[in-house]
Specification:
- The chain is an alpha/beta fold and 212 residues long.
- It has a single domain, classed as Rossmann fold (3-Layer(aba) Sandwich).
- 40% of the residues lie in helices and 20% in strands.
- Strands 1-10-7-4-2-3 form a 6-stranded parallel β-sheet, with helices on both faces. Strands 8-5-6-9 form a 4-stranded mixed β-sheet, sandwiched between helices.
- The structure holds iron/sulfur cluster (SF4).
- Iron/sulfur cluster (SF4) binds next to helix 7 and helix 8.
């Protein structure tokens, strides 16, 4: 095991223990391939499944793998042909069996931090889908909740603003200005500090740099 792998293993073990304390089940997968297999094993045949916008989910090949299974009912908003259809899919997500997402950051003591422009993703994380599976690269682990929030707004938000070409101040210089732009990519700030329904939230930690 390399020193980096050793360090990742220790951070993951600490996080898994702290997430369990918050009634959140967690797994550690050193590689992306192992993470893909772990996520797929968590999705039962016959499930209705959807996901929030996430580079991690897509880059790991999870969306492709889900669509390739013929035993799932997939809701993919990229199949929508109008804003009305997108809205309908957002609403259907609340009754899905499985909701896949990443996180913008996670503190070492297990608080999962997300920022959201529309709010649909953090709404589904909070309530609705029977199971929410987070897939999180260890690059998103921060030492404290404050550092996790700073990561979400200082790294994830500017990068996503650039990805979607959203005209926020962070798009211009890469730094958060705590703006009140109508297009703010972090209108909704979400802290998952405890899972009220034990087993509903599951975290798959991955020992690779994934997403922003
Ligand atoms: S508050 Fe504004 S500037 Fe800061 S990350 Fe959010 S959208 Fe960007």
């Amino acid at each position: 095991m390399t020193p980096i792998e050793q360090r990742n293993q220790l951070i993951a073990e600490k996080l898994i223990k702290n997430l369990k304390r918050r009634h959140i089940q967690a797994f550690y997968c050193p590689t992306a391939d192992e993470a893909l297999a772990q996520v797929m094993s968590l999705i039962e045949a016959g499930s209705t499944i959807t996901w929030g916008g996430s580079m991690t989910i897509r880059d790991l090949g999870i969306t492709r793998a889900v669509k390739d299974r013929n035993d799932l009912n997939v809701i993919d908003r990229e199949d929508a042909t109008s804003p009305e259809e997108v809205r309908e899919m957002y609403l259907k997500a609340f009754s899905a069996d499985v909701y896949l997402t990443s996180a913008n950051a996670i503190s070492e003591d297990g608080v999962i931090v997300n920022v959201d422009g529309n709010g649909n993703r953090v709404a589904a994380i909070t309530w609705g889908p029977k199971k929410v599976i987070f897939v999180v690269g260890l690059n998103k682990v921060a030492p404290t909740v404050e550092a996790a929030l700073a990561r979400a707004r200082g790294i994830a938000s500017p990068t996503n603003a650039m990805r979607f070409d959203i005209q926020t101040p962070c798009h211009i210089d890469g730094a958060c200005h705590n703006c009140n732009s109508a297009d703010s990519i972090c209108s909704y700030v979400h802290f998952l500090r405890n899972s009220r329904q034990s087993g509903r939230h599951v975290v798959v930690l991955v020992g690779e740099n994934l997403g922003y």
